[in-house]
């Protein structure tokens, strides 16, 4: 059974009751912690080329409007949200987060981020965790490339 991916319009509709409309820029942002048991859950899905291709598409369709193409938290609607979307290119934040925790947050959601429990299968959610890891690595590699480029100009 295939679901249609939500359009930007649908995402915006979803945001209105969550405070999108007149959202102040700096609402309180209490820390968002996954339960310890959820943090410990191991990722049962190995990152494969095929899996990453599937999750790239899922990310583009469901996550990019907020989290941005490279995952830097700078999607087209990011600035109008009551909370800033997580930045997956932040190596420190990502190294502290376990796969289980990322999975739990994707599953649970916290306004304005929706819960994906009923929208995406468990496998898809784990594949997305692998994709987020890939985005973090890619951002780190890009940074190294830039630095090397500066030190050893061609
Ligand atoms: C409507 C905008 C929006 C969409 C769409 C969205 N997110 Fe988020 N996401 C957020 C915001 C805002 C936060 C920060 C929430 C907080 O700190 O309470 C967040 C946080 C997260 C986090 C937690 C990071 C951490 O360690 O704290 C993960 C993981 C995540 N999003 C993954 C996804 C994935 C995967 C998708 C697509 C399936 C997605 N998000 C779609 C807005 C969105």
Task: Give an overview in words.
It is a single chain. This protein has one domain (35-151): Orthogonal Bundle (Cytochrome Bc1 Complex, Chain D, domain 2), CATH 1.10.760. Helices cover 50% and strands 0% of the residues. It is built from 7 helices and no strands. It has helices spanning 8-15, 36-40, 49-62, 64-67, 91-96, 99-108, 122-151. Helix 3 (49-62) crosses helix 7. The radius of gyration is 16 Å and the shape is globular. The relative contact order is 0.17. Heme C binds next to helix 1, helix 4 and helix 6.
Short description:
The chain has 7 helices and no strands. The protein has helices spanning 8-15, 36-40, 49-62, 64-67, 91-96, 99-108, 122-151.
Q: Structural class, from secondary structure content?
A: mainly alpha
**Which molecules are bound besides the chains?**
heme C
Q: What global shape is seen?
A: globular
Q: What is the domain total for the residues?
A: 1
- Which ranges are low-confidence, i.e. pLDDT below 50, for 5 or more consecutive residues? 19-26
- What would CATH call the class? Mainly Alpha
What is the subunit arrangement here? Answer: single chain
Based on CA atoms alone, the radius of gyration comes out at 16 Å
Strand count, sense and barrel status of the largest sheet are: none
Q: Please tally the helical runs, counting DSSP H or I stretches of 4 or more residues.
A: 7
Mean pLDDT score, rounded?
A: 87
Question: Beta-strand percentage?
Answer: under 5%
Q: Give, in order, the helices and strands.
A: HHHHHHH
- Briefly note the CATH topology name: Cytochrome Bc1 Complex, Chain D, domain 2
Span of the ends, CA to CA: 52 Å
Query: What's the CATH H-level homologous superfamily?
Result: Cytochrome c-like domain
Q: Helicity, in percent?
A: 40-55%
CATH architecture: Orthogonal Bundle
- How many beta strands in the DSSP annotation? 0
């Amino acid at each position: 059974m295939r679901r249609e991916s939500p359009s930007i319009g649908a995402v915006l509709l979803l945001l209105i009751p969550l405070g999108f409309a007149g959202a102040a820029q700096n609402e309180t942002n209490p820390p968002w912690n996954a339960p310890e048991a959820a943090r410990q859950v191991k990722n049962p899905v190995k990152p494969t080329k095929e899996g990453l291709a599937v999750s790239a598409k899922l990310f583009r369709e469901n996550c990019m409007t907020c989290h941005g193409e490279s995952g830097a938290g700078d999607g087209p609607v990011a600035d109008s949200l009551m909370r800033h979307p997580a930045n997956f290119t932040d190596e420190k934040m990502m190294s502290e987060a376990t796969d289980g925790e990322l999975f739990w947050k994707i599953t649970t959601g916290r306004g304005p981020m929706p819960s994906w429990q009923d929208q995406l299968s468990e496998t898809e959610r784990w594949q997305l965790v692998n994709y987020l890891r890939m985005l973090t690595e890619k951002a780190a590699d890009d940074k190294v490339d830039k630095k090397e480029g500066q030190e050893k100009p061609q």
